[in-house]
Design goal:
The chain has 11 helices and 14 strands. The chain is an alpha/beta fold.
Length: about 350
């Protein structure tokens, strides 16, 4: 069960936190240097870790709250709005995705060997990466050469992972694992991924178990991986509660670049959708004027806690309804896109 606390008196990096509500991670601790309580940042302090320590005098410096999670979310977002304007937040989000594009280019060209991208589903992280990978392989396709990249989606076995890494083990090859979080739950697959993500000059990967598949495909039991890897995940590594998994994830982070898109709150997701709309990408396939676009965005903002999800996909679903049923699209959206009351 999630527990929330309200700070009566406390600071984070010399910023006053009195009156703020946080998700509790770890109760009061006392050290030689300071006293603190560990909480979830939740996006209040931009460009800071997701888990932070609020400096307090003692356990009496905060109190447990009985607010529902939805009420706490509204409180949190109200607090964030006082510390970061919408314009600043959109600029932050846009910059993160621009960095994602540049890092993908560098990984595809082999200048960066490995990258992990973390962000919630439906915000466009996979789309941006796939666009750059398509550009990277365009000349191969036109020339009829073997394509030097692959995007692997969904579940992947350890043996399948080994085979894929071998297939794209040459220089300037890149493998993108998208929504393949099952790899992180398999010790064998996880160790193979660690080997591929290693930043060392020599990345030797081995499969020491007997395999008819490898023999049939002519795949050796040991090879040097010289390609690049991008691992896209919905998991936020810093917030994983399983200590065993955290140790593995920390090992992965230490081996490669880790890009957190910092879309931690409902507000961040809404602003990401607005940012894509501002850039002219979201509704480019629809014959909408600015007023109609704003109507859709306002509808999503007003009903953010009722929609089945807050994502670019949801924006396009509502756009389809706006185009198909111009007179009663809102009624249609409430019926098909919202959770039951």
């Amino acid at each position: 069960m999630t527990t929330y606390i309200e700070i009566n008196e406390g600071t984070y990096r010399k910023q006053n936190c009195a009156g703020m509500t946080f998700e509790l991670v770890k109760q009061f601790e006392r050290t030689d240097k300071s006293n603190f309580v560990t909480v979830r940042n939740g996006g209040r302090f931009p460009n800071c870790p997701d888990t932070i320590r609020i400096t307090v005098e003692g356990p009496m410096s905060y109190q447990f709250t009985t607010e529902s999670s939805e009420s706490v979310q509204n409180i949190v977002e109200a607090e964030i709005r006082t510390t970061e304007s919408d314009e600043d937040a959109i600029a932050r989000i846009r910059e993160r995705f621009e960095i994602l594009t540049e890092m993908t280019k560098a990984t595809a060209s082999g200048n960066i060997r490995a990258m992990i991208v973390s962000g919630p589903p439906g915000v466009g992280k996979s789309f941006g990466v796939e666009q750059e990978i398509e550009k990277h392989t365009l000349l191969d396709q036109l020339a009829g050469r073997p394509v030097r990249a692959e995007v692997v989606k969904g579940s992947a076995t350890a043996l399948g992972l080994y085979s894929t890494l071998y297939k794209y083990s040459d220089d300037n090859c890149v493998v993108v694992f998208d929504d393949c979080d099952s790899i992180l739950l398999d010790d064998v697959a996880l160790n193979l991924l660690k080997g591929a993500l290693d930043s060392g000059k020599s990345r030797k990967i081995s499969w020491l178990a007997d395999s008819n598949l490898l023999r049939r495909e002519g795949i050796p039991d040991t090879f040097h991986f010289k390609g690049s890897v991008i691992f896209i995940t919905n998991l936020k590594f810093d917030t994983m509660k399983s200590q065993k998994l955290r140790d593995h994830l920390d090992a992965l982070q230490s081996r490669c670049h880790y890009l957190d898109l910092t879309l931690d709150t409902m507000r961040d997701k809404i602003l990401r959708i607005k940012q894509i709309a501002q850039d002219g990408e979201l509704f480019r396939d629809y014959d909408f004027d600015q007023v109609q676009q704003n109507q859709i965005l306002s509808f999503m903002d007003e009903n953010k806690n009722k929609l089945r999800e807050m994502s670019l996909r949801m924006a396009l679903k509502i756009a389809d309804l706006r185009q198909s049923f111009p007179e009663n699209w809102e009624k249609m959206a409430r019926t098909t896109c919202m959770k039951p009351a």
